[in-house]
Amino acid sequence: MKFKNIIGLVILIMSCYTGNAQTIIGSWKGNIDAGGNQLPLVFHIKEVNNQIETNFDSPAQNAFGIKTGTTQIKNDSIIIAIPSINGSYKGKWNGANQIDGVFQQGNFNTSLVLTRTNESNKAPTPKPIVRPQTPKAPFEYTSEEIKFTNAAQTVQFGATLTLPKNKKDFPTVVLISGSGAQDRDGTMFDHKIYWVLADHLTKAGIGVLRVDDRGAGTTSLGRNPQLLTSKDFAKDVEAAIQYLLTRTEVNPKKIGLIGHSEGGAIAPMVAVKNRQVTFMVLLAGPGVPGYEIWNDQMRRNFIQPNLSTTDYSIAASLVNEMNSHFRFSTEADTIKANMKKSYANWKQANSAVNESKLFTNKGIEPYLGLVNQFKPALAWLQFFMNYDPAENLSKLKIPVLALNGASDIQVKAVENINGIEQALKKAKNKKFEVKIFPSLNHLFQTCTSPEQSYGTIEESFSPIALQIISDWINKTNQ
Fold first, then answer.
1. pLDDT per residue over 265-287, tens digit each?
2. Counting Cβ atoms within 10 Å, is residue 161 exposed (0-12), middle (13-18) or buried (19+)?
3. Of the candidates 394, 392, 436, which has an alpha carbon nearest to the alpha carbon of residue 414?
């Protein structure tokens, strides 16, 4: 799973300050967790004409020397308003070299610990962003911008259909994106991961329909967006299949699905009900219940690294318990009330525990912030956490290719691939293959470490993985 548009490129902060602001002057650096990747932020605070001016850098986004706006400093508290992104930074300064705080943008909250740094306030010459795999015209295939609606006529979808030239009886796939509203190209950190995938597949003789998600690109949002779950997105995929059936170029007996991340959970939902789906590719798809994936991500975000087994177990018990409340309610106030009870009980049972030793940000606030972050999507989160992909995978008889990357820290490879394999064996499916790629992350990029930021990698999609996908689809549809 992932978060998109974590920070804007422009943050406007003009600062006012009290007498102790002098001691906070300097450069401060920290990292926020952006969907499993560490995104560095650097604030440069200086005094100009008896006022504090702040410059901001986002090195991973190649953005430097950006002006910032009101910073309030009172005793050991610092509050930075960031109206341009509907955000803020609130922290506690230790009077020396560290500020412990929370970065917020819209409904997204995450811990941000700033420490003094000697990094220069002078912006380096921006490096050109190179994405060599991004497709460039002229294309070796036909590419058509299309629109279609769902069965209820409540959503209009914008999409691109790419079809091989001078070829008949070819397979065609619908691409299903991961969580969050993504455009048809899967744009992230200047990568166009779904376009790169579609380009490769179509060159290999496979038709591809890639669709803007609800509220992204030219697709409308539809009714009651706060109530949407993966079941609704499965119906959107049904609409895409129905569109393909109107195209005379498309062989109705060779329609498949490629689901990435959450899309890897949605694809089986569709396939067990729609006999038009004759094959499926799961990319970083889940094979275990959603709450296991969620808890793993939250433990990584909230718990300090390198703890002893005993300390980790104590910390994990709180994280798991706090997040369990998302499974049983979609009311923010109810979830918060239950979290407060759980936190009080944990504190009572672990009164001698030093929270700062266990957690990246102690106290109940990070959990309450998580509720605020997902308040517009609590119905989606509840469904995701309670959904077990084995429910549908264990009914699939069609050919399935499941691929995961060993360096994926969002949907861990071994447990999820094992879960997929076990479910397909339960279905007595004899037409499936599973594979874990070394050194590939959640986006199927070749990386040097699991924590390497997506934006620092030139490769948009592993060529080896691309070839395996296209070869398998063509072989399956011979």
1. 999 999 999 999 999 999 999 99
2. buried
3. 436
Q: Residue 138 and residue 466: Cα distance in Å, rounded?
A: 21
- Strand duo 400-405 + 191-192: pairing: unpaired
Rounded distance, CA 424 to CA 275, Å?
17
Domains of the chain: 19-117 (2.40.128.20), 141-289+387-476 (3.40.50.1820), 290-384 (no CATH)
Closest among 303, 434, 326 to 385, alpha carbons compared? 326
Q: Which 3 state secondary structure label does DSSP give 53?
A: strand
What span, in angstroms and rounded, lies between the C-alpha atoms of 186 and 197? 10
Residue pair 147/158 in contact (Cβ under 8 Å)? The answer is: yes
User: If 0-12 CB within 10 Å is exposed, 13-18 middle and 19+ buried, where does residue 159 land?
Assistant: buried
Contacts 24+ apart (CB under 8 A), 332-341: 332/371, 332/372, 332/375, 332/378, 335/371, 335/378, 336/368, 336/371, 339/364, 339/367, 339/368, 339/371, 340/364
Specify the pTM: 0.78
Please state the φ and ψ torsions of residue 193, each to the nearest 5 degrees.
Answer: -65, -40
- Rounded Cα distance between 258 and 266, Å, is 10
Reduce the secondary structure of 155-177 to three states and give it as a string: CEEEEEEEEECCCCCCCEEEEEC
Q: What counts of helices (H) and strands (E) characterise the chain?
A: 12, 19
Among 133, 145, 243, smallest CA distance to 197 is for 133
Residue 268: cis peptide before it, omega within 30 degrees of 0: no
294 band by pLDDT with thresholds 50, 70 and 90: very high
Residue 343: exposed, middle, or buried by beta-carbon count in 10 A (0-12, 13-18, 19+)?
A: middle
| Residues 272, 276: Cα–Cα separation, whole Å | 10
Residue where the block lists tokens 């006012």: 16
